[in-house]
């Protein structure tokens, strides 16, 4: 959907702000004259947080939908699910950056899904300095005080069989992200009144959900997007250990395959940022020893060094040209002071041949990092050659007539086939520009 810019929007219980961001679907474009505000077409608003230390602390998982046309695979308005605070968390020191209570959104399953549980860990960037974390604690990414009291459940969280065929009637949970270290820190800074308690939040949330019936699960899936995708990898085996050997337990990471790649200036912007997160928030103690006894703790925060240590079956959904990584770690303004990458990083259509070659090399690095992982029969992956980020929470990319496909299979079908052992668990797309099913993100 090109040619549409969202201003500051408030609808129902949640508010989104947007910095001139467009969503374009190459395979199903919609002309501007056909679009109506809050009308029959689905819109998406993305929120970008502040620029800090040369990278974008961006949250690309916030969605605002207006529903109607069946051609988009959507019927009616989304299910809105209320926020539940974990009142016993404070006694365990499991609090958000500002000391407020953590929370989650739960919609109960029924029928054949009554004893099946899907846990979605929210994403939303990281904070690596005191200054950034102080800013963050005054937002919903660091305080439940600012969290929406209701959020839409779409994509993998949808309650409609036509939108989410395999998981629609499961118990579906979204755990809110308010620590800034992928649910893995355990420290604090008294001077700045910051609590880095992501690991404790994870434990408190799991204890709460087990008490609400998850302990009886016969099937469970831990998922997450972006920073939540990193968390789903970090906590995958911990999640498995909550259940008996009779429970089918697997994990899904969407848009979480962040690479320790060089940026356009030859430096490693993301490594510098991850080093700050790990050191500031006390993450090292919660990283798997199987990694830290071989590598620096900062490197063990990168999924490429973690996926080989995960024993539980794991599925990776990722865009080969992940837009968050292009914008924030490959071509951030700090690495491009003359603005040579300015147009390309916002819209791949403006990339020069050398820039496309640089991005093709990034794709190659990702595929190389996945070589050993993909050999394991228990694992699955869906790596499409799109300029996108987080594709399981959006209805148009998760399951719709025009959703992205690789060899005639979409993301929802691929994930379902893998989870239920129906076959066809590994799909890697051909290089850009061969895939015309992509829903690419374009920015202004």
Report on the architecture of this protein.
The strands form six sheets. The protein has a ten-stranded mixed sheet. Strands 1-2 form a two-stranded antiparallel ribbon. It has a two-stranded antiparallel ribbon with strand order 3-20. It is built from twelve helices and 20 strands. It has a single domain, classed as Alpha/Beta hydrolase fold, catalytic domain (Rossmann fold). A hairpin with a 2-residue loop joins strand 4 and strand 5. With 444 residues, the protein is an alpha/beta fold. It is globular, with a radius of gyration of 20 Å.
CATH topology: Rossmann fold
Number of strands: 20
Low-confidence stretches: 1-73
- Termini separation: 14 Å
Enzyme class: hydrolase
InterPro entries: PAE/NOTUM
Organism: Eucalyptus grandis (Flooded gum)
Subcellular location: Secreted, Cell wall
Which terms would index this structure?
12 helices, alpha/beta, 444 residues, single chain, Rossmann fold, ten-stranded mixed beta sheet
Entry summary:
This protein has twelve helices and 20 strands. The protein has helices spanning 130-136, 198-211, 227-234, 236-240, 269-281, 289-292, 323-330, 342-346, 353-369, 371-375, 395-398, 411-419, and strands at residues 9-11, 14-16, 21-23, 47-52, 55-59, 79-85, 103-107, 116-121, 150-153, 171-175, 187-189, 194-196, 219-225, 248-254, 314-319, 380-384, 405-406, 409-410, 426-428, 441-443.
């Amino acid at each position: 959907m090109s040619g549409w810019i969202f201003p500051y929007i408030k609808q129902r219980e949640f508010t989104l702000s947007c910095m001139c961001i467009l969503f374009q679907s190459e395979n199903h474009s919609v002309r501007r004259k056909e679009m109506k505000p809050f009308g029959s077409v689905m819109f998406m608003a993305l929120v970008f947080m502040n620029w800090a230390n040369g990278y974008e602390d961006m949250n690309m998982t916030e969605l605002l939908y207006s529903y109607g046309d069946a051609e988009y695979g959507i019927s009616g308005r989304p299910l809105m699910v209320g926020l539940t605070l974990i009142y016993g968390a404070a006694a365990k020191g499991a609090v958000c950056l500002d000391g407020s209570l953590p929370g989650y959104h739960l919609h109960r399953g029924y029928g054949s899904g009554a004893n099946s549980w899907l846990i979605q860990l929210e994403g939303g960037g990281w904070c690596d300095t005191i200054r950034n974390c102080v800013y963050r604690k005054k937002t919903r990414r660091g305080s439940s005080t600012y969290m929406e009291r209701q959020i839409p459940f779409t994509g993998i969280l949808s309650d409609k069989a036509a939108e989410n065929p395999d998981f629609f009637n499961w118990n579906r949970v979204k755990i809110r992200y308010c620590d800034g270290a992928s649910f893995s820190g355990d420290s604090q800074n008294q001077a700045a009144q910051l609590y880095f308690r992501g690991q404790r939040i994870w434990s408190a949330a799991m204890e709460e959900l087990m008490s609400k019936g998850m302990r009886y699960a016969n099937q469970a899936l831990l998922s997450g997007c972006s920073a939540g995708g990193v968390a789903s990898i970090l906590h995958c085996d911990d999640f498995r250990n909550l259940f008996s050997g009779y429970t089918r337990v697997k994990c899904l990471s969407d848009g979480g395959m962040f690479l320790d790649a060089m940026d356009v200036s030859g430096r490693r912007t993301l490594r510098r940022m991850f080093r700050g997160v790990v050191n500031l928030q006390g993450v090292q103690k919660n990283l798997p020893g199987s990694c830290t006894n071989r590598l620096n703790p900062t490197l063990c925060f990168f999924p490429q060094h973690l996926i080989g240590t995960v024993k539980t079956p794991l599925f990776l959904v990722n865009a080969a040209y992940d837009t968050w990584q292009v914008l924030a770690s490959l071509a951030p303004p700090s690495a491009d002071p003359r603005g040579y990458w300015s147009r390309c990083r916002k819209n791949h259509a403006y990339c020069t041949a050398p820039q496309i070659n640089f991005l093709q090399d990034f794709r190659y690095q990702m595929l190389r990092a996945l070589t050993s992982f993909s050999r394991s029969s228990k694992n699955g992956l869906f790596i499409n050659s799109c300029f996108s980020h987080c594709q399981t929470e959006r209805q148009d990319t998760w399951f719709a007539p025009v959703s992205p496909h690789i060899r005639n299979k979409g993301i929802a079908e691929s994930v379902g086939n893998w989870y239920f052992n129906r076959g066809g668990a590994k799909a890697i797309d051909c290089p850009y520009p061969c895939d015309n099913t992509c829903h690419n993100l374009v920015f202004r």
